[in-house]
Amino acid sequence: METRDRRQSTERAVRLTMERRTALLAYARAIVGDYSLAEDIFQEALVVAVEKGGELPEQDFGRWVREVVRRTAFDALKKQQRRPRLLDPEVLAALEPAWEELDGRGSRDTGAALRGCIEKLSAKARQFLADRYENDLTGQKLAERMGLTVKSAYATLTRIHRALEACVRQSLLEQEGRA
After folding, report:
1. What residues make up the domain containing 6?
2. How many structural domains compose the chain?
3. pLDDT for 69-111, tens place per residue?
4. Are residues 45 and 82 in the same domain?
C-alpha cells in the first residue's frame, strides 16, 4: 500500500507541475534570461515537487512551486556570479498577486488550445518555433537556419505568433460555448 501511495503522490506532483510548465519556464527565464538554464531550473523544481510528494500544498501549489523556481533561479545565478537579467526579487514579489489570480484559471485549457494550434501550423512554421524557442536561436542564426534575412525572420515569427494567438482565442471561445 505504501508503494501505491508513493506512486500516487509522485503522479500528482508531476501532474501539478507539468500543468504549469509553460508559465514556470517563462518565470524562470524572466529571472535568468537563458532558456537552457530556465529548463534546468524547471527540472529541478519538478524534482523538488516529486520529493515533497504527499506534503505538497493542496490550495497554494502555484505559489509554492513558483517560490521553488524563484529560489532555484537565484541560487543558479549566484553560482554563476550573475545578476538577474530582468526581474529582481522585489519585482517578482510585486507580481505574485497577478500569478495567484491566474493559478488554475484556464491554464490547462490554454495549454491544450496552444498545443492544438501549434499542430495546425505548417511543418516549416513548427520548425521555426522549435528553432527559436527550443534551440534558443535568435537574430542572424535563426535567419540563417531558415534561409531568410533577419528582418524576414522576425516578420515570420510575428506572423506565427499572431496566428497562434488568434487560433488560441478562437479555440477557447469554442470551449466556452460548449461548456
Report:
1. 2-102
2. 2
3. 999 998 888 888 765 555 556 655 666 665 665 565 555 567 7
4. yes
